[in-house]
Amino acid sequence: MPLSSQEMSDRFEIQDLIAEYCDIIDQGDFDRLNDVFTEDAFIDYSAMGGAAGSRDEIITFLNNVMPMFINTQHMISNYQIKIDGDTASGRIMCFNPMEISGNPVFFLGLWYVDEYRRTPDGWRISKRVEEKGYQFNAPEGIAAGS
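Above: the chain's sequence. Below: its structure in token form.
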């Protein structure tokens, strides 16, 4: 069944939202996540060794932890987005090379399993759970599950 123009618009807006999230993380401007997540969002990075919690708790976590990484890239693909009116769900692949000073670059492969909600300000992520794929060359203490 062909997509309606509204469904196409919604998909593009959600894809832009996901790309904006990646840019925010890689630029280290974590307060901008207020424009990506709903106020009541739940975010769970625990599958890859991170924290889980509310939007504000995750912003605090990122501000505390991410400065140790001198370089990161969040490259996303394989968007699987299902729209149902003013809500949607998605599963997005992420390839994430990262670098800590004095260590070789390491790689994380994961999926973002998301829920989205249309708000007066546009689409926002209301839930994000990382699903572990793989890790390669992660320094001790950084490895998922450690």
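The domain at 5-136 is CATH 3.10.450.50 (Nuclear Transport Factor 2; Chain: A,).
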